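B., you asked whether I could sanity-check this one before it goes into the benchmark set. Here's the sequence:
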Amino acid sequence: QVQLVESGGGLVQPGGSLRLSCAASGNIFSINAMRWYRQAPGKERELVAGIITGGSPNYADSVKGRFTISRDNAKNTVVLQMNSLKPEDTAVYYCNADVNVKIFSSYNQRAYWGQGTQVTVSS
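And here's what the prediction gave me:
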């Protein structure tokens, strides 16, 4: 059993900044990757940024240069620093993690999702 809890969403003006945080807790053996997705009304959930353990971060073209993803592996957290926000960034942002969990006598990788945090960019 794993929980992902996001925080940091809110209402900001265009050009403003927000810092989203996600903390994973529970029966975690290790985390292979952590990502941020977003979903706007009427649209499919899309990958915003992700970072694989031992690798470098990657970003959607729409946020490259404006957003920064970082991980604290020891604390099982991931942060999305969002700068120069635009109205089209408005969405519910979800934290995602590929987690190695122990189920009975074996370890398995499962994907977990946070409940989401609303980001609204508007004047």
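One thing to flag: The two ends are 40 Å apart (CA to CA). Otherwise nothing jumped out at me.
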